Amino acid sequence: KYNNVLKYLFHVYITYLPSYMLQMYVRDALNSAMDEEMNRDNTVFLMGEEVAQYDGAYKVSRGLWRKYGDQRVIDTPITESGFAGMAVGAAMAGLKPICEFMTFNFSMQAIDHVINSAAKSHYMSGGMVTVPVVFRGPNGAAAGVAAQHSQCFAAWYGHCPGLKVVSPFNSEDCRGLLKAAIRDTNPVVVLENELMYGTAFPVSDEAMSEDFLIEIGKAKVERVGKHVTLVSHSRPVGQCLEAAEQLASEGIDCEVINLRSIRPLDIETVQQSVMKTNHLISVEGGWPMFGIGSEVCAQIMEGPAFDYLDAPAIRVTGADIPMPYAQVLEDGALPGVKDIVLSVKKTLHIQPMTDTA
Amino acid sequence: MSMRHFIKFGKPYLHTRSLLRGKYGLQTCTHVAKSTGVQPTSDGNNFIGIPHNCVTKLEFLEPKMENTIPVYQVLDSDGKIIDETQDPKLSDEILLKMYKDMKMLNIMDGIMYSAQRQGRISFYMTNYGEEATHIGSAAALEMRDLVFAQYREAGVLMWRGFRLDQFMDQCYANINDPASGKQMPVHYGSKDLNFVTISSPLATQMPQAAGAAYALKRTNPGTCVICYFGEGAASEGDAHAAFNFAATLDAPCIFFCRNNGYAISTPAHEQYRGDGIASRGSGYGMLTIRVDGNDTLAVYNATRKARQIALEESRPVLIEAMTYRVGDHSTSDDSSTYRTTGELEYWTKTNNPVTRFERYITNQRNCWSAEEDEKLSKDCSKQVIEAFTAAEKRLKPSPSLVFTDVYDELPVNLKEQQKQMREHVSAHSQHYPLKRHEPL
Fold this sequence. Notes:
The structure holds two protein chains of two kinds.
Chain A: H1 2-15, E1 23-25, H2 26-40, E2 44-48, H3 64-68, E3 73-75, H4 80-92, E4 96-100, H5 111-119, H6 121-124, E5 134-138, H7 154-158, E6 164-166, H8 171-183, E7 188-192, E8 200-202, H9 205-208, E9 220-223, E10 228-232, H10 235-248, E11 254-258, E12 261-263, H11 267-277, E13 280-283, H12 292-302, E14 314-316, H13 327-333, H14 337-347
Parallel strand pairs in A: 2-3, 2-4, 4-5, 5-7, 6-7, 10-11, 10-13, 13-14
Antiparallel strand pairs in A: 1-8, 6-12, 9-11
Helix pairs in contact in A: 2-8, 4-5, 10-14
Chain B: H1 92-117, H2 131-140, E1 146-148, H3 154-160, H4 164-172, H5 205-219, E2 225-230, H6 237-248, E3 253-259, E4 262-263, E5 266-267, H7 268-271, H8 278-281, E6 287-292, H9 296-313, E7 317-322, H10 341-350, H11 353-364, H12 370-393, H13 412-427
Parallel strand pairs in B: 1-2, 2-3, 3-7, 6-7
Antiparallel strand pairs in B: 4-5
Helix pairs in contact in B: 1-2, 1-3, 1-11, 1-12, 2-3, 2-9, 4-12, 5-6
């Protein structure tokens, strides 16, 4: 009762604040999304290593075990293939599991269940078997955790029909996409980013509502521009926005697209943009070969936007090496703002001011 | 204080990536262990998770290969009840259904195997030698119990009422196949009969079964799960995970291992070094029993009891049914290359589950006779051939169905492709075998 009074006063307080002031950490966006969905539907439950008493390896599930108890937040033994399979079985039998991988690197040990048990089941059973499971966890590079903890799986999971794959960037993305994923009856992979967990973003009032959903398969134009299209997903979207700021001071106007979803891929938004700007650059943290950028370029080439390109598309990606450990090497292995700026200038045939843009 | 610290939920949380330095690195844990194991006493003489008693003799535990886990048996090889107290005293009606289903299964297998050899279907797997494991266990369950099978459990479906035409339609992948021809032959599934569609990768059904049992415990108490798997599949990591999960989550799941001696060409003694699969059960904290898998009544009794325990005590139970795979692994296998005819003959003639059961119902229960047996064989053959001929004649699914069921709704790209396909095929219909399919 005391909590309800506080909540009311809080809502009154924040209503009278200008909405740009409401900031939310990505971690809390994910936490609140899960909390609200678990509250709304008691077949939703969370399972993974350390998600219960420990509040989550990255504290994303903080408070959920205390609130919902052993039945809804389950600490699993250390066997990814086991608990992924178990999540699929629970989904087949009528529950809605959220299966957390401590990082998606460890999902490789369970990838057979994600693909063969979850993704393909609806098709192979002719629609008789549905698997409404969400696989979520941090994806891609963190900082100083070397090769076996830094791989990006966007292209691996994006490859497979039967899965939906989302890759949120900011807090609003996290709330809307995770809620949509939990409510979706198809298996969904939610690729978060560890380095973003501790970043706060402003969130709109709309995004704070309990039924706030972002359509899976729809990209967002984060910044409107007219000279070049920057397409990205997850953390690199932030880097594109930074590069755009820097380039704006030089009179170059970048349009930044946040893909939000890897599969289905919203190529229409990219096409519309390229038909306006005539230049395309994709930016991703993953490896260059067979990656997200490869797919964007291929689909642009196959569609109407091809005739509007004034230059070949450029892909900015991670280096084609297992992630090194030493910080200076790690920094060199991932795309940075300077790489994005250099690519923009390259495609627009503008002389860079220095070697590092 | 800057507005960056103003957030809706909880205290501001600072980014602490050092909290978990890799999966096997240092963790700073400040929480107390959950009280499911023994609590440490003040003199430190207990360990978390297990009670223990200390000894001063240095001695290693020897896996007991001389005293292996005993095999529970009800019928001897002549079909006579060994211990009267173990007779489940089933009605004539149930006994005859059990027998007839076994015979029908044999005859269906024979005809479908030949069909594959003649190129009428692409693939088939027979069930010879394991009929008792299917029928005995299926008869002990309720229809609402969920079945996760491996691929050699067609008798379970037959018991539940899967009709001959349904078996054939799946193998022929025609318009009556509820999976619209999207799975290979013998990968049956039936939502109505609570039989989850067969999945090819081995043992993947095991953690799924554990998860489903956990879910049913919460949503549908009074319903259990049975998970069938072979002794070879039990080597997969998924099997370990399933056992461990079902046990730690108190899931009402019966793990039924068909130890049939071979995993394709790998004999059981090369599959493991310990005392079969049953010896592993205690390691996971599961109740375990080993039964004579060729003894229908032993399988029935064990499964019935296992179901009761699983539901009443909310815990998994492991049954290892010792049996023999009389047929080849599949139509892609020729087992004569790795086993002797002598061995095969013993299991086909001397220790045959169908024959043992037939002797029981004919001599012990007097509800069957040799004449009826002959008549049954003829009837079954006739029915199978009729079903098979009809299935072969049925149309194949519409090509439009190639695109459906990837997701619950047809996505934009597949909808486009489906439209393009229809337009193209309609325009050039003379080049496509459209007569064999349902309309586009």
